[in-house]
Amino acid sequence: MKVMLVGDVCGRTGREAFARFTPKLKREKNIDIIVVNGENSAGGKGFTRKSLDALYHAGADIVTSGNHVWDKKDVLEFIDDEPFLIRPANYPDGAPGKGYCLYPWKAKTIAVLNLSGRVFMPPIDCPFQKVDELLKEIKDEADIIFLDFHAEATSEKMAMGAYLDGRVNAVVGTHTHVQTADEVLLSKGTAYITDLGMTGPANSILGVRTERVIEKFLTGRPVRFEVAEGDEVYSAVIVEIDDATNRTVSIERLQYHHKTNCF
Ligand code: FE2
User: Fold this and answer.
1) Of 149, 200, 239, 246, whose CB is crowded by the most CB atoms within 10 A?
2) Looking at residue 137, which CATH number applies to its domain?
3) pTM (global) more than 0.90
4) How far is the CA of 244 from the centre of ligand 1 (A)?
5) Which residues form the domain of 242?
């Protein structure tokens, strides 16, 4: 089976890029399941009903998130009723939503976990201790396991990859919006990439209008950030799993650009 994991969909341009490339890739690359990080899908921060539905409509099966999950309060109206929308599992107990989901595929159960890092990130419980708890909880149910580790620091993400090597099928990083070229099958068989990168406006600073970010650096004053528009970038990996053994076979990194005439 092949699972495509798509990097952070940012704003309207990101939703359009996701809709432009996903169905075509699903067909051409024979993808079975699509996982996408959607935490920036509504105006660059959080989810609305509309932004989540746009992801499902374009082919997302499972939607992950991160530190921006609560930014639009709309999410509180639906997160508890969405079986395949997940948020970092290491929020304190009692947070709305859930930190992992179990997705049925043929006779198998695919677990997708979501955790947030805590280096250069808002305070949150330990992701390493939390992942041990989660793996214990799902061990009798899950045949195949993926983790979206939403984190800033490369070291924390690499440490998570090493910590879970041989215990899960893939660890993919999200959050930085910059794709890293370090995709690898680790020594005990876990696929790993430090960051999937962004699906959103290509001519931007991490999705935000370039001139706004430069203004902030030049003046040192608070500046209202807006999501950029125009040319699109699409970032993802495809992880292939052996159907007989449930072991990871390969990880392939993708990045595509689409030029628009809109500026
Ligand atoms: Fe984030």
Assistant:
1) 200
2) 3.60.21.10
3) yes
4) 35
5) 2-257
